[in-house]
Amino acid sequence: DAKTTQPPSMDCAEGRAANLPCNHSTISGNEYVYWYRQIHSQGPQYIIHGLKNNETNEMASLIITEDRKSSTLILPHATLRDTAVYYCIVRAPQEAAGNKLTFGGGTRVLVKP
Amino acid sequence: KAGVTQTPRYLIKTRGQQVTLSCSPISGHRSVSWYQQTPGQGLQFLFEYFSETQRNKGNFPGRFSGRQFSNSRSEMNVSTLELGDSALYLCASSGDTMTYNEQFFGPGTRLTVL
Q: What is the pLDDT at residue A36?
């Protein structure tokens, strides 16, 4: 799986959009970009994933650059409950790599009132 | 649908003992993965079981082992415990789609080795 680089921490104001960057310059053509988050003392929670198109769900939006070397997770209206560590993960499809997830250090997001 | 359950939630052992942790996946999920989380090393993949077979293995010593039963429930065992094995052990289950899989994590078992 390709390596990812994320800023170690960032603050965000409640109600504002939070933009979380991730670099994955060595990503391969069949590798997906996944985002998970871990709220303190809980197991990680899936947020969203994408291959090359931008994706949106009820939790967030994922913007992937055209060259796929970086992506941005957008939390449109951050709430205090969004305070968590956010992990950007790159992995191959299940049929190639199973379900192994390689977690990096993540970005510790603190949403402030 | 019930989520992933792990038992016990907390465990205290002493060095040299062994421990068995249990994970019940979401109904219908056949893949179960185990992860170790420590403050120093972060979240690290231990192994994955699919249909009772180990499909992936991380870089952990042989003291760490696991198995999966026909009902997809999984156990992991750590023998000859060391102080460094103190960690949060997380289990995740996922379904069988071919290309991608959302993994659902349990609350974890917090193991303390004294």
A: 96
pLDDT at B89 over 90: yes
Residue A82 backbone phi and psi in degrees, to 5: -85, -5
Q: Which amino acid is at B96?
A: D
Question: In 3D, which of B53, B31, B23, B1 has the Cα closest to residue B101?
Answer: B31
Name the one residue in this structure whose structure tokens are 């603190």: A110
Which of B33, B51, B100 best tests the A interface by mutation, with the highest count of A CBs <10 A?
Answer: B100
Are B8 and B88 contacting, i.e. CB atoms less than 8 angstroms apart?
no
How close does chain B come to A36, measured CA to CA in Å? 9
The Cα–Cα gap between A12 and A85 comes to: 13
Angle at A38 between CA B58 and CA B55, to 5 degrees: 25
| pLDDT bucket at A112, cuts 50 / 70 / 90 | very high
Chain A residues with beta carbon closer than 8 angstroms to that of B55:
98-99
Q: B36: closest CA among B75, B91, B77?
A: B91
Place of tokens 């709220």: A39
What pLDDT, on the 0 to 100 scale, is given for residue B95? 82
Tokens of residue A8, six digits: 């170690």
The first and second tokens of residue B57, run together, are 């293995």
